[in-house]
Amino acid sequence: MNTTLLRKRTALFALALFTITMTGCSSKLDGKYESANGVMSVEFKSDKAFLSTFAGEVQADYEIKDDKVIVKYNGENTVLTRNSDGSLEGPLGKMTKK
């Protein structure tokens, strides 16, 4: 195999691995996550979390610590766990990105 081609492939592999690693360690989330039954959703945008249920929507702050997303609203914390498949696991079950 050509040395130049091998170097290019190695560099491309390293870049892909770096991108995957940094995505998993991000200190911010973006997008909407929804439970399978549609009862609960949380959308992350503009450094805020917007939680929606059948009762309405609230805006909350959040922080990320390792694989935990801690949503803070009205003195209460709700902990969501980031799964390896990109979904979030919370008190009402699993939420997937829409």
**Strand arrangement in the largest pleated sheet:** 1-2-3-4-5-6-7-8
**Residues in helices, as a percent range:** 10-25%
Indicate the CATH class.
Answer: Mainly Beta
Major sheet description? 8 strands, antiparallel, barrel
Number of strands: 8
Low-pLDDT regions: 11-25
Oligomer: single chain
Radius of gyration based on Cα positions = 18 Å
Number of helices: 1
Question: Secondary-structure element order, as H and E?
Answer: HEEEEEEEE
What is the mean pLDDT? 79
Give the DSSP E fraction (strand runs of 2 or more residues): over 45%
- The global form is globular
Protein architecture, described:
There is one protein chain. By secondary structure, the chain is an alpha+beta fold. The chain has a single domain, classed as Lipocalin (Beta Barrel). 22% of the residues lie in helices and 48% in strands. It contains one helix and eight strands, in the order H-E-E-E-E-E-E-E-E. Strands 1-2-3-4-5-6-7-8 form an eight-stranded antiparallel beta barrel. Strand 6 (76-82) and strand 7 form a beta hairpin. It is globular. The model is unreliable at 11-25 (pLDDT under 50).
